[in-house]
């Protein structure tokens, strides 16, 4: 196993619900996503990690989600973004074909972080390794609720996420009582339609 990915698993937790990546998906994203990411797909599939707190995903399944979040925003013309990973609470990690890991959306509160530090073409593989080195449970948790939510709701499947109901952008409260297990794709699209996507104050754009 690649040393970087081994460190990632040690940090985030063991894989679960592995989906094998078909050769057609590797071909589809060759030249669009870094070779190193495609290598990880081929070796490790698309999987959940750390009892479901973090997931690597099929970008094609999330094209509608990305379109729903980015349409009618300046982000739509900045780059061609592909969603390659997410947290169980709806943190969305997007990779730009020209800019690398330059966009993260926090769906629960409809905010994003954008980075103007574009990744050079010859540094894309290193950017993938750096991304997996920095992923940890705490960063993907929401106010430290994951362990309690896991006990309350059970382990999420590959197409499920934890969500606040009513949504925080509708005035809901971020409490364990309000957390539910929902279908990921449908809920992420719903959240994108409730409130306009806004940059964090520390975002570059």
UniProtKB/TrEMBL annotation:
Domain T6SS immunity protein Tdi1 C-terminal: 126-194
Highest rank taxon of the organism: Bacteria
Residue stretches making up the GAD-related domain: 4-107
Pfam families associated with the record: GAD-like, T6SS_Tdi1_C
Entry protein name: DUF1851 domain-containing protein
């Amino acid at each position: 196993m690649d040393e970087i990915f081994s460190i990632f698993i040690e940090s985030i937790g063991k894989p679960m619900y592995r989906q094998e990546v078909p050769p057609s998906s590797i071909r589809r994203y060759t030249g669009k996503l870094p070779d190193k990411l495609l290598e990880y797909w081929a070796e490790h599939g698309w999987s959940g990690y750390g009892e479901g707190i973090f997931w690597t995903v099929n970008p094609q399944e999330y094209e509608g989600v990305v379109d729903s979040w980015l349409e009618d925003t300046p982000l739509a013309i900045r780059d061609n973004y592909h969603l390659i990973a997410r947290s169980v609470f709806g943190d969305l990690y997007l990779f730009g074909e020209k800019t690398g890991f330059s966009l993260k959306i926090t769906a629960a509160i409809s905010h994003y972080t954008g980075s103007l530090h574009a990744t050079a073409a010859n540094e894309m593989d290193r950017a993938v390794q750096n991304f997996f080195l920095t992923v940890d449970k705490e960063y993907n948790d929401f106010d430290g609720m994951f362990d309690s939510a896991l006990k309350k709701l059970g382990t999420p499947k590959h197409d499920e996420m934890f969500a606040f109901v009513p949504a925080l952008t509708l005035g809901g409260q971020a409490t364990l009582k309000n957390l539910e297990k929902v279908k990921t794709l449908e809920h992420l699209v719903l959240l994108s339609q409730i409130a306009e996507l806004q940059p964090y104050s520390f975002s570059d754009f």
